[in-house]
Amino acid sequence: MTNEKKQEFTLRITQANKSQLIVLLYEIFLQYMEDAKDALADGQKDAFHRSMEKSIDCLRELTDSVQEKNELGRTVLGLYLYAVSYTHLRAHETLAN
């Protein structure tokens, strides 16, 4: 992620409420996934690995933010957990090739 993008996210985080923070965290996850895709296309395995780890960290934070006391929360948590597992698996498969 570029320094400019980090500054943009930092500014938005400082101005966000709780719900907006969750959306921002998801946007940061997507940015790291895009960074990983670009790094892989450029043959930069170390940068790919770093971006994938950061994206997984974002997903872990998202799973920690879920309130499991209702059906929607449990469904969202299941989706996040699937995304963590899938993302982690794909990163390892990609690095193995």
Please write out the topology.
Elements: H1 3-14, H2 18-41, H3 45-65, H4 71-96
Describe this structure in words.
There is one protein chain. With 97 residues, the protein is mainly alpha-helical. The chain has four helices and no strands. It has helices at residues 3-14, 18-41, 45-65, 71-96. Helix 2 (18-41) packs antiparallel against helix 3 (45-65) and helix 3 (45-65) runs antiparallel to helix 4. The chain is flat.
Strand content: under 5%
Distance from N terminus to C terminus (CA atoms, Å) equals 24 Å
Approximate shape: flat
The oligomeric state is: single chain
How many distinct helices?
A: 4
Global structural class:
mainly alpha
Rg from C-alpha positions?
A: 14 Å
Specify the helix fraction band: over 70%
Sketch the topology as an H/E string, one letter per element: HHHH
Largest sheet: none
Number of strands: 0
- Mean pLDDT across residues: 85
Low-pLDDT runs? none
